[in-house]
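Meet our chain:
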Amino acid sequence: VFDSHFDFLAETPKVSCVLVDEAQFLSADQVRQLHQLAQVRGVPVICYGLRSDFLGEPFTGSAYLLALADDIEELKNICTCGKKATMNIRVDENGRRMKSGEQIDIGGNERYQHVCGRCFYSN
C-alpha cells in the first residue's frame, strides 16, 4: 500500500517483484520509477488498471504505463449488448449514467459498468 508520494526506487531496494493494482492512480513520476526499476534493476513490474475514466478521458498513470510498457495484456470484458467492452461508465444509486463528476470517486464495483464504444456514446 502506498500513496502518491511513495518513491519506488528509494523504498524498494531489495524487492524481487512489484505488483500494482489500480495502477491508473499512479503519478507520472511513479510510473517512470517503476520503469527504471524494471529496466535498470531487472525487477518484474506487473500493473493492473483502467485505461480511461467514466468520461473516456485517460488517467495519467495509465497514459504513462501504456507509453512505457514493454508488454501489454488486455483483460477482456463484455458489454451488456454482447460486444467487447473497451470503456466504462459510472452510474448513480438508481442505475442512471453519470456524465459529470470528479475523475476519481472511490466506490464499489456497482458504481461502474463496462461498455463497448457504441454503448458508451449512445447512452
Residues 2 and 8 are 9 Å apart (CA to CA). The domain at 8-68 is CATH 3.40.50.300 (Rossmann fold).
